[in-house]
Structures are given as structure tokens and as C-alpha cells.
Amino acid sequence: MPSSGYPGERLGLPREGRGSIGRFGRRLVAAVVDWTLCQLIAYGLFHIPFGQGGPHSFVPLGLFALENLLLVSTLGHTIGHRLVGLRVRSLAPRPLSPVQVLIRTLLLCFFLPAMFWDSDGRGLHDKAAGTLIVRM
Fold first, then answer.
1. Beta carbons of 1 and 45 less than 8 angstroms apart
2. What does the CA dihedral 91, 18, 24, 127 come to, rounded to 10 degrees?
3. Each residue of 22-51: pLDDT tens digit?
4. How far apart are CA 81 and CA 70, in angstroms?
5. pTM to 2 decimals?
6. What is the 3-state secondary structure (H, E, C) of the chain?
7. Chain segment 87-126, per-residue pLDDT in tens
């Protein structure tokens, strides 16, 4: 069967609009927004300067993980996702499970799995968790 090869086609997702796969540019903007918010919170609450090395560098990462765990498991999106019109959903026809959100968040915090994606446009962290990011 010939394929036009757009991301998400194999998963039965529309080419564009609501429910289509979240493209890299939107996902990147969402991650930058979320990371910046976590940096600002770390500075405001814990007085950790931007770009701080050593043990303090894990505070923004911990906040980033907490944001993803809490917001994705309850709302289906982070603040950054919401701003750019994305949401995380399960690949299976059921709501996101806590295990999926945990796996996705842990791998996302390692950064590298999020920088590599498959032909469907899913990051390796989403692929391992059985999730995908779609447009709202």
C-alpha cells in the first residue's frame, strides 16, 4: 500500500489539525517554556542562579519532573504544551496511566530520548511509554 509518509499516518492520525501528531517545533517551544518556568521557580524559591552547576543544577530538573508528573497525569499536558496547543495521550484507546506518565517523565529527564524520534514523529521517551503528543 503506497504511503504519503506524513508523521502519524501509520497510527491513523490526521495529517493536520486537531489530533495530528505534535511536530518537533511545537514540542521544542513547549519544552523551552516548561524548562524556563522551572528555572524561574528554582531561582525564586531556592535562590539558585540560572545555569548553576553542581548539586543545585538538579533542582530545576526536579521541578521539571514534578511538573510533568503532576500536570500530564491530571490534565494531559504541561504549561508549555498548553501554550502551544499540544497534549499527551496514550497510544492505546484508554486514558494515560500513572506508569506511562512516570516512564515518559523519567526518560524525558534524561533529555537524549526526547531528541531522537521515529518515523511517526514520536520521541523515544514517548515510544517507550506508549504515548504520543498530539495537537489539541
1. no
2. 0
3. 998 999 999 999 999 999 999 999 999 988
4. 14
5. 0.90
6. CCCCCCCCHHHCCCCCCCCCECCHHHHHHHHHHHHHHHHHHHHHHHCCCCCCCHHHHHHHHHHHHHHHHHHHHHCCCCHHHHHHCEEEEECCCCCCCHHHHHHHHHHHHCCHHHHCECCCCCEHHHHHHCEEEEEC
7. 999 999 999 999 999 999 999 998 877 888 888 888 899 9
